[in-house]
Amino acid sequence: MSAKIAIVQEDRGSSVDLVPHLLSISKCVRQLMGIKLAECGVVVGQDQFLLCFEGADTLGSIQIANRLSVRPSTVSKMVDILERKGWVQRESDEGDHRRVLVRLTPAGRTLADRVRNVQAELETELLAAISNGKTILPAIKELDLLLAKRLRRLR
Fold this sequence. Notes:
7 helices; single chain
């Protein structure tokens, strides 16, 4: 009986530590990515923007905002910056001329490939460093989806 109580208390204690650990992990991963991305001339945040075009030639601001879990006004500012760097371009939507689409330029696509490689290298390093990396990944993906869904409801 006391073993069950100890397990339950241990589980409660570890769940209280979940958010601080996730925040620390998130901060450390973004800092590591920032260091690695600096070699490409990309800053944190721009990497995710470039990668959100996976499987798409053009995207509207709302689509980008949804993929990045940010507001459309944030996307507009990001497009301004990346357009000045020559990584994206705006174009009119043929079906609705009021709507503006964003497209990666050839330089932007090349950079997105480099960012993808940097991300894959870091992922390989991290999975090699933790013994149960393959089994923990589905739980992390599930948590990511849950948090993104809750965030969308609040925006």
